[in-house]
Design a protein that fits this description.
Chain A: It is a multi-pass membrane protein. Chain A: GO terms for molecular function: L-isoleucine transmembrane transporter activity; L-leucine transmembrane transporter activity; L-phenylalanine transmembrane transporter activity; L-valine transmembrane transporter activity. Chain A: It is found in: Cell membrane. Chain A: One of its GO terms (biological process) is L-isoleucine import across plasma membrane. Chain A: This is Flagellar biosynthesis protein FlgM. The complex is a heterodimer of chains A (about 300) and B (about 280). Chain A has helices at about 1-30, 40-55, 75-105, 110-130, 160-180, 185-195, 195-200, 205-230, 240-255, 260-275, 285-295; strands at about 150, 155-160. Chain A is mainly alpha-helical and about 300 residues long. Chain A has one domain (about 1-25, about 35-240). In chain A, strands 1-2 form a two-stranded antiparallel sheet. In chain A, a hairpin with a 5-residue loop joins strand 1 and strand 2. The longest helix of chain A is centred in the first third of the chain and has 31 residues, at about 1-30. Chain A is globular, with a radius of gyration of 19 Å. Chain A starts with a helix and ends in a 14-residue tail after the last helix. With about 280 residues, chain B is mostly helical. Chain B has 11 helices and no strands. In chain B, helix 1 (about 5-25) packs across helix 9 and helix 5 crosses helix 6 (about 160-170). Classes of the chains: A mainly alpha (about 300), B mainly alpha (about 280). The interface of A and B includes residues 127 and 244 of A.
């Protein structure tokens, strides 16, 4: 029983990062109806920004070898700053890979290619500048906090996991309040509902799309930093796996549904944690098996609206 | 230095591009091509290393055995595509693309984790039917010629026209009496067959085989071949596959920058030449 509780804690904390990541996917999908395949690369940028802002030095293989940011910022400052950096990257991706196609009303297939091209460029720029090596964040980030908190009955939670849960929870809370209460949030929902009508009603849909990219990329950047904190940065390509798993989360919850992304993230995180150690090699297939079954049984996902067919 | 092996890879790229093109002609964005390619290669690697009877008495692997592998691989991939295609092709647009990405990921994890398929290390010492790359060049050239000829012929036949009709307007095609489900399924199975045949040759050519070939990067790269080459006629994917396979190799002198340039090409291609290099005559 305690073992199960421990697995649940592990699953929920990893699921929370999946959820943060997938929220970004779903925000962009809801306003544009396309998937941003550069999202994984932006996530990777967030992880590297976090590493640099914490004062980490660049390894020996990149062009920037040996350099480091002059300040070593505390974690709770570095993380949001890294998110802002990632948001800037997201805006850049929107400007080069999405805006030119959107103006022309191009078919969705092309967005897939251009956004992936942008992702390839970002990942390889990181490799060029910082090398292909793995980076671990500095070890003493938690200061006087213990690394592990005991919850009794042999169940424990790593302080990093707790932090991850808290940050993810706060980010989701703010996002949902903002989406439902603020005028920008409502404008975003209006564009998601029907872009043309929203424009007729005087909503600047171009600006709203940029806003969606900025928020989505901010969330990706933060989750990149959090994942770097909890495992480490496996190299410039480490975001790609998350990017694909994020697709699983997105489909499971329902494309374009924000609560669905959160639910999907938690379900896949927990399901992965419950895979027995003997079968751990198959763990990475769990998200995709869920995704596949969901698409066959209920394409609109758990909380999504069914896609409409024109007649 | 450009050597023969680059030309072999270019022909392989063109074949995979045609495999992506076939369902796309029927309006179906399937990213499963690297999966069926991997299945083809795995079948060839298993048969040629596990069945001593296929090896014959000569030092070189008999071509008849290669042909036999190809028939088995085509049957396996075709059957799998038929079984998977039925439920999957009900999905539309991006949903189909995501489902096929999931298929490729599941296939890779299963093949890499299961000892029957060589697990993570893969299958080694796959026997050679040809003495040098020239033989593979001819074999791939032949395969590409057959597939390209078949595609060109298909485009002028009712089936090919039905596919184009579904791409342009599925509902209208159905109203005109096109059995859309059947046509889409045929396109999907044909695509799997082409990819698997390319995989059989690849397993011998590379001499060793593991399932890492089935990945998301490969899905998108092969799709980029078609989008940049042009997705309206068979010539587009062939040109796209040849050029984009050669590009990273030709860029090798610029070292680390080459993948950035490759990224720029697939970023800017759809923006500046949305219809691809080869446009169709009718539209």
């Amino acid at each position: 029983m305690d073992g199960l509780l421990q697995l649940l804690i592990n699953g929920i904390s990893i699921g929370a990062t999946y959820a943060l990541f997938a929220l970004g996917y779903t925000l962009v999908f809801s306003v544009l109806g396309v998937i941003n395949f550069a999202h994984g690369a932006v996530f990777t940028c967030g992880a590297y920004f976090t590493y640099l802002l914490l004062g980490g030095a660049v390894g020996s293989n990149g062009m920037l070898a040996g350099m480091h940011f002059p300040l070593a910022l505390p974690l709770l400052v570095a993380l949001p700053l890294a998110g802002i950096g990632a948001a800037a990257m997201g805006l850049l991706v929107e400007a080069v890979a999405f805006k030119p196609l959107r103006r022309r009303g191009a078919e969705p297939l092309l967005y897939l290619i251009t956004s992936l091209g942008a992702g390839v460029i970002l990942v390889n720029l990181i490799q060029l500048l910082m090398g292909a090596e793995a980076y671990a964040l500095p070890g003493n980030l938690l200061g006087r906090w213990p690394a592990v908190l005991a919850l009794g009955h042999g169940v424990q939670i790593r302080t990093v996991q707790l932090l991850l849960l808290i940050v993810a929870g706060i980010a989701m809370l703010i996002l949902s309040l903002w989406l439902n209460r603020s005028s920008y949030g409502k404008a975003l929902q209006a564009v998601a509902e029907d872009g043309t009508t929203a424009r007729l009603l005087g909503i600047n849909s171009g600006a709203i799309i940029q806003l969606a990219f900025a928020i989505a990329s901010f969330l990706a950047g933060i989750s990149g930093g959090l994942v770097a904190l909890s495992v480490n940065i496996g190299g410039p390509y480490f975001g790609i796996g998350y990017g694909l798993k994020g697709l699983g989360v997105l489909v499971l919850g329902g494309l374009g549904s924000a609560p669905g992304a959160v639910l999907g993230g938690l379900i896949i995180g927990i399901a992965e944690a419950l895979v027995p150690a003997k079968l751990s090699a198959y763990k990475d297939a769990v998200a995709f098996a869920f995704l596949f079954l969901m698409l066959i049984l209920r394409p609109q996902g758990l909380l999504g609206k069914p896609p409409m067919e024109k007649v | 230095m450009i050597d023969i092996s680059l030309f072999v890879l270019m022909l392989l790229g063109a074949l995979l591009a045609l495999a992506v093109y076939l369902p796309l002609r029927a309006g179906q964005l399937s990213l499963a091509t690297p999966g069926f390619y991997t299945i083809g290669g795995t079948v060839a690697a298993l048969l040629s290393t596990q069945l001593p009877g296929l090896g014959g008495s000569d030092a070189v692997y008999p071509l008849t055995s290669l042909l036999l592998e190809m028939i088995v691989a085509i049957a396996v991939a075709g059957l799998l595509a038929f079984l998977i295609g039925k439920p999957v092709l009900k999905l539309r647009g991006i949903y189909l693309a995501i489902a096929t990405i999931a298929l490729v990921e599941i296939l890779r994890v299963v093949l890499l984790s299961s000892p029957w398929f060589g697990a993570a290390v893969g299958i080694f010492a796959i026997p050679q039917p040809f003495e040098g790359p020239e033989g593979y060049l001819i074999a791939y050239g032949l395969l590409l010629a057959i597939v390209a000829w078949a595609c060109a012929r298909l485009e002028r036949q009712p089936l090919g026209m039905a596919m184009a009709a579904i791409r342009d307007d599925e509902l209208a095609a159905r109203c005109m009496g096109v059995s859309t489900d059947q046509v889409k399924l045929i396109a999907f199975v044909l695509s799997a067959i082409v990819a698997a045949a390319a995989g059989v040759l690849a397993a011998h050519y590379f001499n060793s085989w593991n399932a890492r070939q089935a990945n998301f990067d490969a899905s998108i790269t092969t799709l980029a071949f078609v989008v940049l080459g042009g997705s309206r006629t068979w010539l587009g994917p062939v040109i796209g596959g040849l050029v984009l396979t050669a590009l990273p190799e030709l860029l090798r002198p610029i070292g680390d920058l080459r993948l950035i340039v490759f990224g720029l090409v697939i970023l800017l291609g759809p923006i500046f030449i949305p219809q691809g290099l080869i446009k169709s005559k009718q539209s």
